[in-house]
Design a protein that fits this description.
9 helices; mainly alpha; 2 strands; 3% strand
Length: 289
Amino acid sequence: MSEARGMRLGAPVDAPTPSRMTELGKRVLSTIVLVPIFVWILIGGPAWLFTLMIVGVGMLANWEFTRMFHRAGVPVLREAGLLWGGLVTLAFVRPDRAGAALAIVVLGLLAASLDRGAAGPARWQRVAVTLLGVCYVNWLLGHAISLRALPDGVHWVLLLVWVTCIGETAAYTVGSLLGRHKLAPGISPGKTVEGATAQLAASLLAALTAGGWLFPGLRLRDALAVGVLLGVLGQVGDLVESALKRSVGTKDTGHVIPGHGGILDRIDGFLFNAPVLFYYVTYGRAWSA
């Protein structure tokens, strides 16, 4: 797929512009509103409500993903991606069945390619893009359900959100105010080395301070590992989504959340950080014990 041309790349990062500062204000306000709702569902609500929220977010993000490609003229099975993607995320309620759910989805999508609606490369392109959306969005996000089910799972999810949000906010703020050196201009022209450095430092600091109030008993070794892992891989997740958007010539996947864009724009870092944290808690701590 050729890179989109004529795409608006945003304002230069040499100095903060009024529009970027306005977006920063919207982003902070949206976070202030959404985070308490999320925390209430996680802490005050039953486990099934948290699961329902994750499944719903995954389905909305998948819909934005397929819409992004559909608008660029790329064939995709939107309804199948929406419904079967939700099934894959829901299957993480029983982790032993998540693999079976993904296998069913793969077989179903391949069978759907046999209809008369497409021919030639388009027949397989729509299956490939739909399956990419299910794996990228729904499969990765489903690990948040598995993380919640672990011992101290509520604390681990809170740590995931705390570190990821603080890191991303630091990256956006520092990049907007002080960013000079572009990090990956061919993928995301607005991201800077200064912002990336700030995200890593803020993620590490957020993890180190969490043990005193957010996650009592969090060991220093775990805080250091989580801060570095989420601070680095969260940025990789952000860049991956930027590359996907740039490949089809779009800036935002939607406009649901003021200052953040679409649902997929908001959770791109979590899509990488949720499975990374789950596997670190499940296996990584045992290896380093």
